[in-house]
Batch of 3 targets.
Target 1
Amino acid sequence: MTSNTKAYRASIFHLLDDPRYKKQAHEFIDDGLLVVCDGKVVSVGPAAAALAALPPGTEVTQFDDGIITPGFFDLHNHFPQLSTVAVYGEQLLGWLNAIIPEEEVYKIPEVATSRAKIFLKEYLRAGTTTMVTYGSWAKESVDALFSEAERLNMRLVAGKVMANRNMPAGITTTDPESDYEDSAELISRWHGRGRLAYAVTPRFAISSTPEDLHSAGRLMRENPTVYMQTHLSENPDEVKYTLDLFPGHKSYLDVYDHFGLVGDRSIFGHCIHLVDEDFARVKESGAVLCPNPPSNMFLGSGLFKFQKAKDYSVRLALGTDFGAGNTFSMLNSMENSYKMAQLDGYSLSPFEAFYFSTLGGARALSMDDKLGNFAAGKEADFVVMDTCCTPFISWRMEHAKTPLEKLFVLMMLGDDRAIQRTYVFGELVHNRDA
Ligand code: GUN
Ligand code: ZN
């Protein structure tokens, strides 16, 4: 420990394992101390002993009503939907027709830059420190997003949307090579730079020709450490249209599989209408499923099968799918996950919900050696949740005795108001009370 050492005193909560399979998978320390140095976790433990071990003069910040937890992961959202969130009245395909033309404006660097600042700031206000994001079709949108994330030293995985059919002119290409070339250029500029990583991003099978999906597969083969994100089995009309466009495939997942897009770097958004065979293939490949309950409720897309995901023990992490999801907040996504699971006969515990938004997210990105909980040496991305963030939540908390009760109240009643502070690599990047 050096003079850069800082300590944070509050309740501390993190996951050590997947609570779906392990009974005691979390640690909750009522009066804890998180010690951080040079952007990394030094230790976490009960405050009484840890305070005595600190170097003399170490700055200790205390949060009397706080619960410190790892920064949230949002594994699916859309930057160029900042200006179209909350569009009324449609399900997926009609809604896309309504909102997609607006994505064109993100090709203008000044527009993309100013909006990237708003977008990432809102996520930090909501306690999200790592996310996987769709840019627009224009590579300028992704340059703007990565530049701002780099300035904030924030972990970001993002990619330019690949699309070459069934999209309005202005956000698609007629040149079959351009999606490949623009993506390759962005990979060489951004992937692995600081805390940034690239995701090859075919929007969905409907908006790509077989040649375009082939290009996506080629990018994955040529760049084995990049991620791949796309939409999968979100809505019944979408599934049907996909199988009309790609006849002869046994399922929607099988279309992506044919082009080499199903592997352990693949993140599939939604996955509501999967069949058993798909779950088995996802398990075998190591791919990640990412339900986005705020979006799935908003668009009426259906209910993600949490029980099946558990039965097949597939990797699972949550997203918001902002701007079909009408929130930046993973607490809201956890709340909607709970309600969605209830409708399908599954009681999602707060430990599971927080797991899917922290350590589960890190595991989904194979970043759990660096992030997801407070093991010594991990990167210090964390949030302070305020259990007294509104007069009523404060009053309700007095009736919550156990960690489970407290976390459940926060996830059912809380949102960005409950995020008192957000830290990225040990630095304060959001202070609600400033
Ligand atoms: N499928 C293809 N594009 C989109 C999108 O932008 N949002 C959602 N929710 N689904 C999609
Ligand atoms: Zn989406």
Target 2
Amino acid sequence: MKVEYFVGYDDVYAKWQLNPETFWMEAAEGIDWFKKPSRALFEDENTSSWFKDSSVNCCWNAVDRHVEAGNGDLTAILYDSPVTLTKRAISYSELQKKVALLAGGLRNKGIIAGDRVIIYMPMVPEAIEAMLACARLGAIHSVVFGGFASNELATRINDAKPKAIIAGSCGIEGNKVIDYKPLLDGAIEISAHKPLFCVIHQRDQLKATLLTGRDVDWDDLKTNSAPVDCVPVSGDHPLYILYTSGTTGEPKGVVRPTAGHMVALHWSMSNIFDVNPGDVYWAASDVGWVVGHSYIVYAPLLNGNTTVLFEGKPVGTPDAGTFWRIMDEYKVKTFFTAPTAFRAIKREDPLGNLVSGYDLTSLKAIFLAGERADPDTINWASKMLNVPIIDHWWQTETGSPMAANPLGIEQLPIKLGSPSVAMPGWNIQVLDDQGLAVEAGELGAIAVKLPLPPGSATTLWKAQERYMKSYLDTFPGYYETGDSGYIDIDGYIYIMARTDDVINVAGHRLSTGAIEEVLAGHPDIAECAVIGVSDPLKGQLPLGFLCLNSGCNRKHNDILAEVISDVRGKIGPVASFKLACVVDRLPKTRSGKILRATMLSIANGKEYKMPATIDDPTILKEISVALSSCGYPIG
Ligand code: COA
Ligand code: AMP
């Protein structure tokens, strides 16, 4: 008699620990290779790469192979845009044709493997087609989120040095139409690097005026081209660069290696998210963020799922029942969003009256990430939807979850406040200042023992030294996540705060340093500090303290309005920078370090110890007074 053994999380994790090489080579069987890798891990002094000697193409794996296998009629993308009242279903066959033709157009214009292409597009299927067309050619895409302004786009143009930029004519934010063309033109004007050409996808809501000689219409590009095949690239070839916030105003260009990324994402779909090919999977994020790259585009398509592309907001498009309408209409099995989206819905429909009109029986689980999932939100969602609400933790750099509750292997008990346990590939440790592992339950810096698993960032674009300094130098032998927290005796991880100047606003990662750089550029400002204060909807909001130049006697309100507009204009509306106040001085240590943590405690009404090194304790009172003057806490 055959005995079937239950294989649970502990077994799978132990299997990886025992022999990572075998584990990842087995996972690699889920991918089609032009040339199979001879082994999984290739290590040198500074970096590790995965499946490096293979030859592969990501677009083939995400699109063509499903058509080849006879699944061309399966829906690849379900586009639902309440803001334009549009719905479209695109099958894998149709997607293949569109992508091959677009790639043909790009090739005609000279794009080859290794060229960079910036994509600045809203949540339309063409954004996915553009990403896949680049992948088809081995060109490295870099998607820039539509909520970033010209300056941020220019920084990325200068760093990635793209041969082409593909942009939409406009984005739609609720009932606002955002004209992308002036933002694009403005960015190209201020950037030192100029792309050879731009491809503009014209939307009906607002047509852009094209610049003769530089801009090409999306449809014209395709009309005059022939479809092209997938170009084989080596396993460590960069699939994309995704810029994310670091400590300074210079964003970090996270480089994603092709093969490892595919293997890790493909593995995660069945093992973590518990979805099978053909299932409908929906990540309500944006293609401009890592969640969009991994779980709107690549993972569901690599796994042969139907991915939902939603152009709208959880509330107001048209109401707080939109999510439930989509889940019902498309029979969504697995849903992924940031906790802030649920907080927005809960605020408008606390009793869940809008849930009851829909049939949500297809829904099996909800995954939350991007920021801390507060227990109130989890409890509310769990009560409303009656499915497991799974918190999971990862970062732009890692590309897929470091910690999760792996539903596809085994549903572990949920502990509120924890994204559960380390996934295979991730040896997660909590370290003290000396880099020594602390006891269970003790707070410290969260780090990952090297090597990082497949799919993790292997470097920062043209900035290996910065990569080392940002992630590998602090704790030799470990990757520094930038998060602090603890691990309990059952191995459950708790993420408590960032150890750097990164804040998380509505699930969007922002740098307070970048905002400070904009504020410091104002002619009346001598010194400033930005902290991330708590907000019941967005999790955190940036709040600026400004010290004016001596002798400046302009009205404070005028200066505040100017800096708020500067941040919106230079970083973008996504920074949500609306809170600022003028102070005479900033609290500092005797050595001149600004006491941001103390200011944060005051703002958030938390108890704090008077820092022993403070140069003048009376300043703290001034901080409290200034805070109340700027309308924080809001309401
Ligand atoms: N293009 C142009 N502008 C954009 C934009 C885009 N792609 N995305 C956001 N903005 C603008 C918004 O219109 C808003 O502008 P405003 O100041 O004029 O109102 C500003 O940037 C801030 O946007 P956001 O933080 O998204 O706030 P919001 O009030 O519009 O919506 C939520 C709040 C919670 C509903 C929204 O943030 C949300 O749905 N979050 C889901 C989480 C998510 O997708 N996270 C991604 C990682 S998983
Ligand atoms: P990003 O690179 O934009 O995905 O942001 C990554 C950061 O968001 C992490 O380093 C954490 O600070 C935070 N984060 C992401 N997921 C979680 C989570 N589940 N719990 C707590 N913080 C999270």
Target 3
Amino acid sequence: MLEELKKPTAVEGIKRSSNLLRGDLAQELANEVTNVTSESEQLLKFHGIYAQDNRDVRRERALNAETLEYIFMVRVVVPGGMLTTERWLALDRIATNLADGTVRLTTRQAVQFHGVIKNGLRPLAISLDHELLSSFAGCGDVVRNVVSCPTLQANSGDPQLSEIARTLSRAFRPTTNAHWEIFVNGDKAVSREDDCERPIYGQTYLPRKFKIAVAHPHENCVDVFAQDVGLIPATHHEFGTGFNLVVGGGLGRSYANRDTFARLAEPLTFVTSSEVPEVIGAVIATYRDLGDRTDRKRARMKYVVADLGLKNFREEVERRLGRALRAPLALPENFDASDHLGWRTNHDGTHEVGVRISAGRVRDDVNGARVQSALRRVANSFDVTFFITPQQDIVISNVATGDREAIETILVDHGVRMAEELGVVERNALACPALPTCGQALAESERRLPELVVNLEGVLAKRSLSRRPLQLRMTGCPNGCARPAIAEVGVVGRTKTTYDIFVGGGIRGDRLAMLYREKVPFGEIANVLDPLFERWEREGVVGEAFGDFVSRTGIS
Ligand code: SRM
Ligand code: SF4
């Protein structure tokens, strides 16, 4: 029995026999059926593609004995969230021509298309390739989109720092030609014998996904402690500039498996800039060798670090690196988090403006802001750079002084509200996509975020708290894609109509939130939180954030 439990998962077998991520994908993409086999579903993930179905019509179709409405989600890799205007316009066109019309910005600065049909997958990959973009390695058991603070990239004045997301992305991108053969240039599908993969991945890649983020030295907008590996710029008195490297973070949990938990990353070592790829490589190799390939729910690196303990994990990394790691430096004391919204002036005299995108969904609302048209107009008219933020928003950067007013006019004319007009909860609210696309969603998230924001702002307004920022993060299940486990208020789908409420995290991202109430109906969430707001109003010290207050005083 024990032996049986210890067998590698089916996904391990699929990877091993896939011929470096090819499997039967080419044949399946060419056939008439609208979905793919479950084996191909697993391989598609490595190509940045998720097989989904429209859950809004599941029941109706089942009642009519019809097949599911199969659709695909495609996640485009955008290291550091940086996009030229040409690329932005290409993504916008692809959304219109091949997906559901919306561009979905993710909490890891990537872009997702929803509602793509199977026949659209190759045209979509070809369109991306024209812009030197790709969905390859957007998902799957590999290093995912590397996240980096937009300010670090636009404003550090240090080319190594501003390019680090792209440097790391290149360093750990899988090298198999499978994606280009199958999706982009089908004619070359004969060359597979010559193909090879990075030794760090081999034939079975990593046990699961692997996430890297690079923070600003003073702004933790990337949630650096929620990552498998986080880098925080620091200067060593002896070795000069480099990074504190933290390991073992991750936020996903499963209700079905009590042995799963959210965990914050811990400081492992100080590395100089030139050592970064090598040391992260040794960390990944450690995870590749020691990660649990028998249970995908417990296969993330955070469990290796938690099970071994940091000291033993460190020794494993050192063994693979072939030398001792330095001690980490002290973490920054004044770590805060910018939401990047509103105008600011960069060191080089250019300007940038952060624009809030509700739940990262770029589209024109019928009765609201026409943000998609506004961004299209800006991208067509000005020589600027776009950064997607880890808060699902957009920063229009590199704005010349002479263009600032015209850009603001375009935004305002399209009904886009500027930072100072946003509500206190609205401004810092995140939500995952959940229904109708996500197969794992237990409850609504993105679609009900606006209502929840209004409810919470209403309750705060009844008190004298209507000007106090509150960070809200909502997800449709405990996988935690909008990082609710470290939020001031985390609302996590539990059943179709109820949510678990977590409180006490905060914008510094260095504290896990506590479970406050379970199975709360959606309509009662704001009222259930109100007694805590009442105490915050009455007992909080001046300027104390809600999460800090709850963490200091506890919950009951
Ligand atoms: Fe996520 C799975 C969406 C960031 C933890 N995530 C999924 C899937 C692919 C559902 C699935 O497996 O079938 C979701 C696609 C839904 C859809 O319809 O689009 C999904 N995750 C997202 C995005 C789009 C949320 C968003 O609102 O932006 C984010 C895309 C990131 C990207 O561009 O790569 C996203 N996911 C995260 C984060 C936050 C982060 O990385 O900073 C987390 C928590 C951090 C972590 O990894 O621990 C996260 N997603 C998960 C998990 C839990 C993993 C685990 O450790 O168990 C799953 C489930 C899984 O992998 O099986 C998951
Ligand atoms: Fe889906 Fe759950 Fe992630 Fe939301 S948190 S996108 S419901 S997996």
